[in-house]
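User: Hi! I'm working on a homework problem where we have to compare a predicted structure to a textbook description. Could you give me the structure for the chain below?
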Amino acid sequence: MAGTSIPEIRDFHDVVRLLEPHPEWRADLRRLILIDELLALPEQMGRLAEQMTHVTKETQALAEAQRRTQAQLATLTGIVQRISVDLGHL
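Assistant: Happy to help. Predicted structure tokens:
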């Protein structure tokens, strides 16, 4: 490391200034500082987003099934009312 000097670090802001031009150092530092649970969050959020997409599709399918059920119930209600009227005329 001939010719490489290490600047004096007096406070946190000196560390930040040293890290700013080196994104590869920040990635290594994150692995050292952050707990495994925090490092796993991006992957977990990706899985959660996939699950939410699936739940949204399922909910849309259920809503459509509910609309069909309501339409069928309305039809059956009309039929029962007509049968009731017809039976009242007997």
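For your comparison, note the following. The chain has one domain: 12-88. The two ends are 108 Å apart (CA to CA). Good luck with the assignment!
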